[in-house]
């Protein structure tokens, strides 16, 4: 009897300690916020001290996990309220899954400011965006990426890059990592848009090597660096700065030597930034400002689109009915093309209606940026709930795109769901919305469309690991980076 009693006491003590420790996070924020504010928080679970719900998040997003299970648990336990409290990687967080609320937060720059720990450190080390009005910075970054006239100028060289890339991959004796190879193609494209086409190949290769170290860290939604990676990442950031500083100085010397023909010399976006002056004739952008802008542009126009383009090739290859529809459209466009013209035109791209639906579905199904992050600058009251000042607000875009109440059978890849369909405001957010709408949105679609045009007509893919797991950290990708062979089809 005494032994049984002792066992019960020990078990009871362990459970008591367990539940006490489990509630420490709740108790801490109750004391910090006060009972009135704490009681008005959205439902949810702040989890364990320090780590919060981070382990549950990691399990859902690691290779072989179900990335939607994290949100599904919140909804099943707390109902469809659209907002949930949590604690991720040391920060108290309000997770938002309701389209209307998400849209409101995106559009409210006064009450919500961006909160990307890594992005701030790596892309704004020179403090550019603290010195410059955001709309001005956005306009500078977006100007070479959007608009009919601008995009049409990019078509011919992107067409050439994609065509040559596929041809080269098809001659490889060994399988290629498609994600890495696509990334290299897109890197060449965005560097040409921003730096021009006179950058020496060794400089270009070195710049790409450094950015391959930096890119995943920028895209990561985790606020912590793994042991040993921080020094490597910041070393890469510094080296990129040194390379670009040399490029900028050389361009300045060339432009200064030939001032009388400056209009003819200004060819790329960097040239425009170098020669820009204010009304008093003072230089608008120093080298550090230009480097910061370039890194932001490079991320928007290269790294993220590479993930999307990889999934585009995967989906078009494994869905025969989708492939057939897309092929019929491409063959019709080629049939209508005058025999005297070589290469794609922007007019032809605009005729690719089915492929545009394919891209819309791709960006919904594979939400590359799972979430967008803000920080509340004051206590904000939404739908009878409070978002406390200083808390992270996570706009969980994937939850919206994979919500069966908005998209029937959301796991299914179905371009036909976009037939005569326009989503309601806030229900389709692959590039965000408002003042921080991704400046690379149209360029991303252009990359994917041109790549698919050549692939559909002339190539097929054979994956080495057709049942390879998918990981969602830092973005959805195949664990083997889509190891495959690209095979050219006989004419």
From TrEMBL:
Superkingdom classification of source: Eukaryota
Record localization: Membrane
A Pfam short name: p450
Cofactor(s) this protein requires: heme
Chief location: membrane
Keywords associated with the record: Heme, Iron, Membrane, Metal-binding, Monooxygenase, Oxidoreductase, Transmembrane, Transmembrane helix
Membrane topology field: Single-pass membrane protein
Similarity comment text for this entry: Belongs to the cytochrome P450 family.
Protein name: Beta-amyrin 11-oxidase-like
Annotated organism of origin: Cucumis melo (Muskmelon)
Lineage: Eukaryota, Viridiplantae, Streptophyta, Embryophyta, Tracheophyta
